[in-house]
Amino acid sequence: MAEVHHFTYGVFNPLAAYLLAFLGSFFGLLGTARARDARTSSRRNRWLLISAFAIGGGAIWLMHFAAMLGFEVPDSPVRFDIPMTVLSLAFAVAAVGTGLLIVGHGRRSLPKVIAAGVLTGGGVLAMHYTGMYGMNVAGEMRYDLGLVVASAIIAVVASTVALWFAVSVRGWAPISGAAAIMAVAVCGMHYTGMAAMSVHLDPATPTQVDGFRPLTMIVPITLITAATIVGVALSALQAMTEEEFTDGAGTPRRGVHAETAVPWSLKQATMATPTVGRRPSPRPVPLRSPTNG
């Protein structure tokens, strides 16, 4: 069994992974809070989709690969397969999005949150081990079944708690605390899954491994992180702007002042027009009856 390092760059990787997990969870919970206040299903779905990208793409997927930058096998090169890496991103976003759509509509109930948590946890688990499958070394990767089961339990519990937070917490302080808890759970699941893996080198296996170097992944990870944050921020800004200037049914508010939101109409403007300078309308003169004489 080959020697494996999980913290090649010291505390930098776990700290960066935790920070990404926290920020993604924080933005995602802000989005779900807005989704609960949405008046229409389309607006609610938009906020839930934004939250799915923030949590699934940021808090889970980006955290995973930020932590993986610190993974090293001294006796073998480590390379990443791009198609499998992208597939793991799709698993993360789809799993979180499905769970949020389930709990984001209808009445809140514990059985529904648990069922969605199991489904989402399975997707998160698929994301993790798909990403691991996309990692190539000059040998064979094996997994300890007990630790794999432990990582699955953590993934399901973390997903269930995250979905419960998504339909419950409101306000900056509670959302920050919930995001901190979610980040600990996501990182715990990742490093438990990583501890389950061992590398067994084969002398007959060529040392030439295909794929991208881990450090080369810094550039796409940085770009994807920036694109995710900017995309989520712009989508949220657009959604808030539309909600500000439209009514509950999505119809633009005609004649609404941006500050006071007091309805305006032509009739009110006519009634409010000052009468100074107008000529008074002539009053009718009563007819005088004719007199004799």
Helix segment count? Answer: 8
In what order do the strands lie side by side in the largest sheet?
A: 1-2
Largest sheet: 2 strands, antiparallel
Structural class: mainly alpha
Helix and strand sequence: HHEHHEEHHEHH
Nearest-integer average pLDDT: 79
Total domain count: 1
Q: Share of helix among residues? A: 55-70%
Q: Quote the distance from N terminus to C terminus.
A: 139 Å
- Give the overall shape, derived from the CA principal axes: elongated
Q: Approximately what portion of the residues adopt beta-strand conformation? A: under 5%
Query: How many strands appear in the DSSP assignment?
Result: 4
Rg calc: 30 Å
> Which residues form runs of ≥5 with pLDDT under 50?
255-273
Pfam family, one: MHYT
Protein name: MHYT domain-containing signal sensor
Keywords: Membrane, Transmembrane, Transmembrane helix
